[in-house]
Amino acid sequence: MRQSRSMLSGNTAKSIILFAFPIMLSQLLQYNYSFVDNIIVGRYASTDALAAVGNVGAINSFVIGAALGLTSGFTIPVAHAFGAGDRRGVAKYAGSSITVAFLLGLLIVVVAHIVSTPLLKLIGTPKEIIKLSAAYVNILYFAVPLQMLSNNFTAISRAVGESRKPLYFYAVSVVVNFCLDLLFVKHFKLGVEGAAAATFISHGVAALLTGAYIFKFNEDADIKKSDLKPNRKIALYQLKLGIPVSLQFTITSIGSMALQSAVNSFGASVIAGFTAAGRVENLTNIPMSALGVSAQTFVGQNYGAKQYDRIKKGVKTILIMGVSAAVIMSFVLYFGGYRLVALFMSEPVPAIMQAAKAYITAISRCYFMVAILLTLRNSLQGLGFTYANMIAGAGELLGRLAVAFIFTPLIGFAAVCYAAPAAWLLADVPLIIIYLKKRKTLDVSHFSVAK
Question: Among the four 28, 124, 221, 353, which has the fewest Cβ within 10 Å?
Fold first, then answer.
């Protein structure tokens, strides 16, 4: 094992920052898939098209988020094996994760196409945009196996301490997506279908490049053909870790869909404003998210190496960095978010801008809770306690359901704006309790790395 890329020694803060920075850039590039789609569709198609693309956000989180959550759980044992210096274990777990991810991706494609239109109707999608929304997702979902593969390849790379290479590959795929978006939407006037097709092709490019790196150039993975053969025991163990992470995305997405149904009752302009503001929020969320991903790798590797004191100190350091980043991003949102929303329209529409400003103002006041959520959730994942994801997801679901069905009818759109903070709070409380409990018992006698 090449320890120069590990997170098992040296200054914790320095290791985290050096590891997290490429992840931030990678997530920024990945984010550009939807960000570019929204800008180009909003500028060169129509407001209805922008609303249609934004309307499917909650459903996409339900389908795609659940799929990618599986791969996040599958690669936890890879980090454990790397930390333990088990070279064959790394290859064994990595190979199994690739095969299981792809097979599940094919299954998810079928299920997604069956449930997409009923879900669009269930969340009360306005009649003027339901066909556009369906056309967008029914193309986009064919990319799920490709997304699962590229996400899985990237997770393997990060589990063995390499966070820079995926950045280069996503840069290429984002450029492909941008060029194809302009070609399909602006030049050929293909609307939402063109945007979805561009995203599908770019995901294929990302899967090809990340896969080539893992199989041909990543010496720490060293995956053989025999490692790709399904192993029942390993697959079941990885599913045991991955399913709770996937369910967390599914549970929170149900809350998001319920909230989206409340937003949809206010009409296309509010939907468009909520969509644009949400994209800006996702952009400012990247630093905390990258630190969370880093926490999972840091904890996972050190857990495999049985360096429990380093885990405790590391999580504390990451939490401080995450909250600090959240405070900075709160100011960015409050003072600059409104201007970023204008990028989504050729000419700002007052109703859209008003809805976006209300949402951005509300979440900027509570953003520190995101850092707590992402740090503790990913740290517990790194330890293998993925059930905490489901508990936190249930808290998020409760917060969004309460806003959608109780407070929105009473208060109106102002309640929608505080749905995310309510969800973060109800997720943070159980995560803090669980982490503090596990921290006290973080001893070799209480844990064992599965073989």
Answer: 124
